[in-house]
């Protein structure tokens, strides 16, 4: 008999086993199986715009193509295929590298791109930004992991995470052996911040011997889609300063805003606007990415983090740890440069870039409405408007009959509902339990990314399924 594996299911790191990540969990696996069997699946489980048909923008991809294949610049036909400003920009980025995109960069990223990001932040916020405090990462995910890795020392260290949350946070905190301290968003007020609950959760955690060291917020929210007010941000900043907590600002959806009352405002800007000692003391790390916005370049894996008021020796330690992985991927870094420094008025590619990006954002705004309205037209479904980001997170009021049926199938009620939805319609969603939800409530998360043309039919098919499901299991459950 073969000896047991050294790395067997019972002998790997317990934290690895404990970690779960619903976005690619049971529902996704079942959807992939059904797809293999030939069923048409609409993958709304992950915010991956290009996978649902979004086309890449022309200018950034022209630059990327030339960076990957610089010999094309010697071809006599180059100017027939590539815009002159794309050729110039490719040369600009290649000159920043030490041997093109095939060479490692500094572990913090290319200094030239870090400088372009600092200029972007300065322009966006109206306050200085220091390129030395900006690290480039393989998507925002890796940046979040690097910071949590430095923050969490043991299971007594707690990180406040909004519930519902994006499971990068719960998964990473588990993986690192820390403690997630939940704070609940108010669904009945469009998923707004509840500072009373936040304070109460800090006290509860402290009574249990937890040292609360970090607070994450996601603005605009995933999966909840809410846009925080400036007042909310000020409250978070003041609370973290008072309670000696590092603020982690997940701002990856800053360009995805579909209401006009509350345009995006960064935590850094609010902090700097407060002035005085707080603006020199609050420890803030902000995250951004090329995966979202109108670029949606998830596969390029480009992200950055900006540190404000982080101890210089800690910045050095983070640099050391980043060095273990040698270099963030260089094409992702160039995509970041392109995101923060788009063509300007007067540039050859400006009109096309503007038309392409505007079309995507306008369509996302329409889709946010079609989807929210579609959910609210369904029996026992209540959905807050997707003010920003890329998701809808409707509450589904499951009748007792459905809850009982789920139980006898050995499934959580929301998982049961999502599986039935998938089998009936091919719509692949994620159950609310993957993001966290108040005890006794059930939700599903979908992206708003299926194409505008496809969406009405998708929502009609959702409604058919849902209303039949509800009729099958119930008489009547009142609306929220
Ligand atoms: N932060 C939030 C709030 C996110 O939603 C995501 C990705 C990330 C960070 C990380 O993105 P990158 O690593 O690609 O920069 N969102 C996932 C989601 O919920 N669906 O798709 C991906």
UniProtKB/TrEMBL annotation:
Where's the Aminotransferase class I/classII large domain? 84-454
Where on the tree of life does the source sit, at the highest rank? Eukaryota
| Functional pathway | Photosynthesis; C4 acid pathway; Amino-acid degradation; L-alanine degradation via transaminase pathway; pyruvate from L-alanine: step 1/1
This enzyme catalyses: glyoxylate + L-alanine = glycine + pyruvate; glycine + 2-oxoglutarate = glyoxylate + L-glutamate
Keyword line: Aminotransferase, Pyridoxal phosphate, Transferase
Q: Establish whether keyword Zinc-finger is in the entry.
A: no
The record's Gene Ontology cellular component field reads:
peroxisome
> What family does the database annotate?
Belongs to the class-I pyridoxal-phosphate-dependent aminotransferase family. Alanine aminotransferase subfamily.
Q: How does it assemble?
A: Homodimer.
State the name under which the record lists this protein.
Aminotransferase class I/classII large domain-containing protein
